[in-house]
Specification:
Elements (H helix, E strand, L loop, with lengths): L1 H13 L13 E5 L3 H7 L4 H22 L3 E8 L7 H24 L3 E5 L7 H13 L7 E8 L1 H17 L10 H6 L11 E4 L18 E4 L9 H12 L9
The structure holds 3-methylbut-3-enyl trihydrogen diphosphate (IPE) (2 copies) and magnesium ion.
One 3-methylbut-3-enyl trihydrogen diphosphate (IPE) binds next to strand 2.
């Protein structure tokens, strides 16, 4: 532990960032990466320029999370509602995983990061699935940070599917209605082998969940910032963690 501590400290100091308490780092951080469109608009650029810039931020946050010892980083990249956007924007967003992974995958492999996908694969283009599947395959034995991409993810869809599957198991006689517990429900969600997020970050000043992890966020600490996602950096991430560390999590107790 001490060795790990001095490692972190040294690395953090090199990067000129500081955290108060490395013992109480949130194990699962979930981020709603919002504000790419507004970032671009303020510069008179097309929205896709904001998405391109936003993609570069992922790197910084992944590195920082890994350094701090965060176990799971969930990134909301595309919601089930984002299909409503203009076709050229959707097409661009669906190319982002390939763009990101074509450059970053070797580093993720090296940095012991394990890539994971959370979302409905059915309506994703095959080129998007191929890129993500390749990353999942190449990082499947890694034991460090789990990088969980929420892609075509919607929490209500996730819950509906879970209920349909449990109902089918009941019809098949494998479970009785009174045997359905919150643990059983959690085991049917797309996060089944992950712990619930400890910290949720949303950028861009929007104070809402936009259909993100409604079940899993029951006791998560929330941190909102006006910073637009393309402007988000390591310092903001540390600020969120520092604030998290000052919160008292009571889970209904005292
Ligand atoms: C977040 O940025 C990225 C995605 C939702 C894919 P937005 O594209 O929502 O940016 P704003 O909210 O319009 O500024
Ligand atoms: C949430 O952001 C989805 C992602 C960040 C991927 P949106 O920009 O889609 O959310 P709303 O529409 O403002 O609620
Ligand atoms: Mg938005």
């Amino acid at each position: 532990m001490l060795e790990k501590f001095s490692n972190w400290k040294a690395k953090l100091q090199n990067k000129k960032v500081e955290t108060n308490n490395i013992e109480n780092v949130p194990k699962h951080v979930a981020i709603i990466m919002d504000g790419n469109g507004r970032w671009a608009k303020r510069r008179g650029l097309p929205r896709i320029a904001g998405h391109r810039e936003g993609m570069n931020v992922i790197n910084k946050v992944v590195k920082q999370a890994n350094l701090l010892g965060v176990e799971v980083l969930t990134l909301y990249a595309f919601s089930t509602e984002n299909w409503k956007r203009p076709k050229n924007e959707v097409d661009f967003l669906m190319r982002l995983p390939e763009r990101y992974l074509s450059v970053e995958l070797p580093k993720l492999v090296e940095e012991n990061v394990r890539v994971r996908l959370m979302g409905c694969k059915d309506s994703l283009p095959s080129h998007t699935i191929a890129a993500v599947d390749d990353a999942i395959e190449k990082t499947k034995h890694n034991t460090g940070l789990v990088l969980n991409f929420a892609l075509n993810y919607g929490s209500r869809d996730e819950i509906v599917t879970a209920i349909q599957n449990i109902a089918q198991e009941a019809v098949n006689g494998n479970i009785k209605p009174n045997e359905i517990t919150d643990t059983i429900i959690a085991q049917h969600l797309m996060t089944k082998e992950l712990r619930d997020p400890d910290l949720l970050i949303r950028t861009s000043g929007e104070i809402r969940l936009s259909n993100f992890m409604l079940w899993q966020l029951a006791y998560t600490e929330f941190w909102f910032t006006d910073v637009l996602w393309p402007d988000f950096n390591e310092q903001h991430f540390l600020e969120a963690i520092n604030i998290y560390q000052q919160r008292a999590r009571r889970y209904g107790g005292i």
